[in-house]
Known about the structure:
This protein has an eight-stranded mixed beta sheet with strand order 5-4-6-3-7-8-9-10, with helices on both faces. Strands 1-2 form a two-stranded antiparallel sheet. The protein has helices spanning about 25-35, 40-50, 60-70, 75-90, 95-110, 140-155, 170-180, 195-210, 225-240, 260-275, 290-300, 320-330; strands at about 10, 15, 130-135, 160-165, 185, 215-220, 250-255, 275-280, 305, 315. It has twelve helices and ten strands. The N and C termini lie far apart (about 45 Å). The chain has two domains: about 20-115 and about 320-333, Four Helix Bundle (Hemerythrin (Met), subunit A) (Up-down Bundle), CATH 1.20.120; about 130-275, 3-Layer(aba) Sandwich (Rossmann fold), CATH 3.40.50. By secondary structure, the protein is an alpha/beta fold. The chain is about 45% helix and about 15% strand. It is elongated.
Amino acid sequence: MVLRFGEKKTAGDIPSEIGDAGSGGARRWLGGLRRGLSKTRASLASTLGVVLSGISRLDPESIDDIEEALYMADIGPTTVEAVMEALRRGEGEGESPSTRVRSILLSLMEHPAQFPPAKGEGSPEGEPEIVFLVGVNGSGKTTTAGKLASRLAAEGRKVMFAAADTFRAAAGEQVEVWAERSGCHIVRHKEGADPGAVVFDAIASARARGADILLVDTAGRLHTKKNLMDELIKVRRVAERQLPGAPHEILLVLDATSGQNALAQVREFGPALGVTGLVVTKLDGSAKGGVLIGAVHESGLPVRWIGVGEGTDDLLPFDAKAFTDALFEAEGA
């Protein structure tokens, strides 16, 4: 079984999970995306939008102004330089400056600087798919796991939780609340227990219960602390020994409000753990949503989901074109 969250598309760049373009689900999805990006869009309008409004062609001075505005949008120096190179070599020449910048940003996400990680085979038929959620403290891992569980359970999938964050006070209780809301079984040990043991027992239980997917909520850890990263690598090895090919997805959860610190997290977590996809949370509370573009371009990692609000339905499958369109929409940028 390969769930591969958020990859399939239908006409109009609407993720297939949402429905056909023009459907009620698609309209709600687009509306949620636009609302969730309102702060980032307003920030871009006050910087990049001011530069681009009223000019019909780019000159060296306006290109320099665009560079400054993109730096302020927390897109990251590597990605900003890539945009500048594309503009200076005339990419999109003949189109409006706004369209050129928008198209280049989209292209950088669709053709990143790094090759995307190789896709795994997924879990064997009849076996659960194991999904790890990793990231720093406070990024929204447990909430993301809960919202994913609710969505998947509503689609008829049999979902289980592994409460592998055994260090944070009340972490287990938080997972139990989400498990109860979504009607999912949970495997949890006492506070301070070995997280590897939790994962071992959870995989055994998921196989015995015929679960489709096991969501593993891990403890938050700073990407700069090698001992904590090594511990997470050990937990991953437990999963690999228990079920060959596991974990089948490792989602790095990033807090959009952290700005360019999120780029550092991608650089550290990605290679160390074999991250396969990103979840960017709290976009509705941040004007720094541009960091998502930099994260995708630098790492090659696909964004699976974005969080644009507190509700269960505010965890949205990601689409790069819809995202860039929503950033530039209605501000004249």
